[in-house]
């Protein structure tokens, strides 16, 4: 669903060309493909408008309300995450003048809210590009926060008619997708890459858009690492439960046919072990990320899996029938590291510690190895039912 054209809340909208108010015929009805109508929903975070040569531009609040925080919580848990976006277009904060800075944001609402919440007391313009509801770093890697989109959006919102300063302040993490020299050549706007974190924007603007080394440093502290866990759990939950159910049901097979007692015994504990490994991998990987050995996420996950095996062995966890013979032991020695490694590799898309090409290369190398280990482990586990 394209939220640039559809109001998710069903509330009234104002149709315009990059500004609030009635459609401008000069903009909307000519033959330029870059000139687009934009629908701005009547959301509570739009608190007014400012008059400009292209019409009224919506003014957004710099204060996050309960609805914004609830929406962010839901997005973190994967609820409506891909529809959590704002309309691409042109917005204002405070009472900006033609000389006020133009800040560029993705249309993922978490990114947009993070930006506006740190602009209290400032006068600025916000140009929101269409990243299909994806955050800045991921959209830069996917090619939606890109040179073409930035140039296209400056034309669509008729930016040269509103601002006198020919500068665009882009998030530093968008640099992977935007060629600054191409934007300047095609649009006349000079690109300045701002700080990594939105909370440094005020200091960055106050010093004439000069970034300190600390502003350029990419960090991934514990709080941010923990924030990516919920959505990973939700996305993987159905697959994890399905595989666990297969362990439970197939464990009933044996040389004498099918036994419900075996399913309720070794099967139940095999399913529990698989669930435990998945849960531990998805939570401990980001938590322990800096301390797990290796650079590749797949290697870090494999080490975590080995650690889980050692822990289970050391505590002699009472799982009747799970480690009943050496074939089953060998099976889990293959399955656990493979599962933990695969869970860890999912976080390559949740941290700025990886590059697009590096993540792609790691997936190409690691996934076949993980599949081979897991496949062989499952075969041994199944054979163990008949020994």
What does this structure look like?
With 387 residues, the protein is an alpha/beta fold. It has 14 helices and 11 strands. A 3-stranded mixed sheet has the order 5-7-6, with helices on both faces. A two-stranded antiparallel ribbon has the order 1-2. Strand 8 (167-170), helix 6 (180-187) and strand 9 form a beta-alpha-beta unit. The longest helix has 29 residues, at 356-384. The radius of gyration is 26 Å and the shape is elongated.
Task: Report the sheet with the most strands, covering strand number, pairing sense and barrel closure.
Answer: 3 strands, mixed
Q: How many DSSP E strands?
A: 11
Strand order of the largest sheet: 5-7-6
Q: Which structural category do the helix and sheet elements fall into?
A: alpha/beta
The ordered H/E elements are EHEEEHEEHEHHEHEHHHHEEHHHH
| Form type | elongated
Share of helix, binned: 40-55%
- Overall residue-averaged pLDDT value: 85
Beta fraction of the residues? 5-15%
What's the total helix number?
14
What integer value in Å does the Rg equal?
26 Å
- Low-pLDDT stretches are 1-38
Distance between the termini: 53 Å
Please describe the topology of this protein.
Layout: E1 13-16, H1 25-28, E2 38-41, E3 46-52, E4 55-60, H2 66-76, E5 89-93, E6 102-106, H3 109-116, E7 124-129, H4 136-142, H5 147-156, E8 167-170, H6 180-187, E9 190-193, H7 201-206, H8 213-216, H9 222-227, H10 229-250, E10 253-254, E11 257-258, H11 260-287, H12 297-315, H13 326-345, H14 356-384
Parallel strand pairs: 6-7, 8-9
Antiparallel strand pairs: 1-2, 3-4, 5-7, 10-11
């Amino acid at each position: 669903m394209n939220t640039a054209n559809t109001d998710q809340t069903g509330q009234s909208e104002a149709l315009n060309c990059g500004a609030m108010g009635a459609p401008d015929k000069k903009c909307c009805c000519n033959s330029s493909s870059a000139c687009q109508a934009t629908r701005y929903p009547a959301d509570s975070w739009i608190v007014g408008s400012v008059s400009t040569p292209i019409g009224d531009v919506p003014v957004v609040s710099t204060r996050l309300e309960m609805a914004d925080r609830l929406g962010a919580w839901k997005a973190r848990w994967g609820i409506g995450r891909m529809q959590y976006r704002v309309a691409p277009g042109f917005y204002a904060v405070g009472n900006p003048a033609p000389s006020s800075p133009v800040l560029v944001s993705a249309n993922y609402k978490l990114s947009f809210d993070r930006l506006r919440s740190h602009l209290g007391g400032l006068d600025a313009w916000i140009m929101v590009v269409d990243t299909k509801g994806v955050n800045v770093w991921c959209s830069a890697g996917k090619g939606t926060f890109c040179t073409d989109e930035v140039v296209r959006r400056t034309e669509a919102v008729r930016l040269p008619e509103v601002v006198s300063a020919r500068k665009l302040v882009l998030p530093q993490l968008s640099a992977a997708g935007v060629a600054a020299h191409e934007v300047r050549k095609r649009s006349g706007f000079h690109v300045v890459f701002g700080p990594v974190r939105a909370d440094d924007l005020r200091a960055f603007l106050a010093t004439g858009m000069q970034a300190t080394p600390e502003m350029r440093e990419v960090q991934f502290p514990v709080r941010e690492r923990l924030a990516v866990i919920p959505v990973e759990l939700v996305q993987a939950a159905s697959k994890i439960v399905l595989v666990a159910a297969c362990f439970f049901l197939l464990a009933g097979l044996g040389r004498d046919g099918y036994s419900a007692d075996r399913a309720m015994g070794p099967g139940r504990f095999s399913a529990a072990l698989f669930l435990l490994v998945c849960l531990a991998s998805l939570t401990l990987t980001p938590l322990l990320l800096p301390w797990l050995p290796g650079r590749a996420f797949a290697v870090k996950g494999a080490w975590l899996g080995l650690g889980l095996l050692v822990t289970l062995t050391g505590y002699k966890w009472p799982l009747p029938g799970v480690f009943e013979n050496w074939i089953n032991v060998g099976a889990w020695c293959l399955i656990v590291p493979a599962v933990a490694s695969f869970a860890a590799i999912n976080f390559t898309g949740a941290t700025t510690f990886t590059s697009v090409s590096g993540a792609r290369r790691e997936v190409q190398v690691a996934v076949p190895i993980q599949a081979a280990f897991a496949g062989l482990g499952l075969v041994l586990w199944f054979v163990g039912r008949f020994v």
